[in-house]
């Protein structure tokens, strides 16, 4: 499927392929795009879902949409957060935006993976929740080495635990925003294997914290936790990012979805009062709050 489908925040489709966004244009930022791609670049709203088939130029549409927002002064580069799933894709998107607009205009933007964006946030805010900004990030080898020691200490290998299967289960739980305490609350305590897993999970968390470390799956979950526990910190980023764009949205897990949900929330009036520098009148709606960011997500029609 190559035809683009656009949906508003209420799930209703936006026009047809030859709807209000079709027609010829001299705008260089839409030159060379087909009518469906142009509609996707020019459509506006609080939330927009762009669905199209593989190889239909969805990432190109996202890049041109970013460039148009900046060129039309709908957003400053620093107000844009663009999320991709690989560092390579992020670098390519940055290069494309700079190629469309010239200069280093993309330098103020956050174009990154979910994990890279979270690392930036956590390093800035780490001290607010008991870490230092120079925390260590454990890769999969580090995590499995730690789990190997814990499994040995608990003699859990006799119950079939290995670093690989334990790491995989912990990763799945963290991607569902479950920590050891949350999992323990619903675990079957009469099952000895479940009890041992809870002990391993608890010990793993404690060892990471003592080492001032996060594993890879912690990065997103801890950022979500940070925003929920400290709405004043969340407000800083909710205010900053006025346009959030996510590529390959069909691949997001629960933690990633939750992060986007937190970032696109509006800033309530009680938090607006605490912002520094103080919010200006043009940032506020009639109720004294800052409206949530505009969200654009791009999905594959074959998987979404």
Topology:
Layout: E1 5-8, H1 35-42, E2 47-52, H2 58-71, E3 80-84, H3 87-101, E4 110-113, H4 114-125, E5 136-138, H5 140-153, H6 163-175, H7 180-186, H8 192-210, E6 213-215, H9 218-229, H10 231-240, E7 243-246, H11 254-263, H12 269-272, E8 294-300
Parallel strand pairs: 2-8, 3-4, 3-7, 5-6, 7-8
Antiparallel strand pairs: 1-2
In words, what does this structure look like?
With 304 residues, the protein is of the alpha/beta class. The protein folds into two domains: 35-130 and 219-299, P-loop containing nucleotide triphosphate hydrolases (Rossmann fold); 138-211, Arc Repressor Mutant, subunit A. 45% of the residues lie in helices and 12% in strands. It has helices at 35-42, 58-71, 87-101, 114-125, 140-153, 163-175, 180-186, 192-210, 218-229, 231-240, 254-263, 269-272, and strands spanning 5-8, 47-52, 80-84, 110-113, 136-138, 213-215, 243-246, 294-300. The strands form two sheets. The chain has a six-stranded mixed beta sheet with strand order 1-2-8-7-3-4. It has a two-stranded parallel sheet with strand order 5-6. Helix 3 (87-101) links the parallel strand 3 (80-84) and strand 4. Helix 9 packs across helix 10. The protein is globular.
């Amino acid at each position: 499927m190559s035809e683009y489908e656009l949906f508003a925040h209420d799930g209703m489709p936006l026009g047809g392929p030859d709807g209000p966004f079709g027609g010829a244009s001299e705008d260089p930022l839409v030159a060379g795009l087909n009518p469906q791609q142009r509609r996707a670049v020019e459509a506006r709203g609080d939330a927009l879902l762009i669905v199209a088939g593989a190889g239909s130029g969805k990432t190109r549409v996202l890049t041109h949409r970013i460039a148009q927002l900046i060129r039309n002064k709908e957003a400053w580069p620093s107000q844009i957060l663009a999320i991709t799933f690989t560092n390579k894709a992020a670098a390519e998107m940055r290069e494309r935006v700079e190629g469309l607009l010239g200069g280093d205009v993309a330098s103020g933007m956050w174009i990154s993976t979910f994990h890279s964006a979270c690392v930036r946030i956590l390093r800035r805010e780490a001290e607010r929740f008991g870490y230092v900004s120079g925390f260590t990030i454990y890769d999969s080898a580090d995590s499995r080495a730690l789990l190997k020691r814990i499994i040995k200490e608990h003699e859990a290998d006799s119950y079939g635990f290995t670093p690989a299967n334990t790491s995989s289960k912990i990763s799945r739980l963290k991607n569902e925003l479950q920590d050891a305490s949350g999992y323990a609350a619903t675990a079957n305590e009469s099952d000895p294997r479940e009890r041992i897993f809870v002990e391993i999970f608890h010990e793993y968390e404690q060892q990471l914290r003592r080492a001032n470390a996060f594993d890879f799956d912690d990065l997103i979950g801890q950022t979500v936790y940070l925003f929920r526990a400290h709405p004043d910190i969340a407000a800083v980023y909710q205010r900053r990012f006025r346009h959030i764009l996510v590529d390959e949205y069909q691949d997001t897990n629960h933690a990633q979805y939750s992060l986007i949900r937190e970032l696109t929330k509006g800033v309530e009036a009680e938090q607006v009062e605490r912002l520094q520098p103080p919010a200006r009148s043009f940032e506020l709606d009639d109720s004294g709050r800052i409206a949530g960011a505009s969200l654009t997500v791009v999905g594959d029609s074959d998987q979404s």
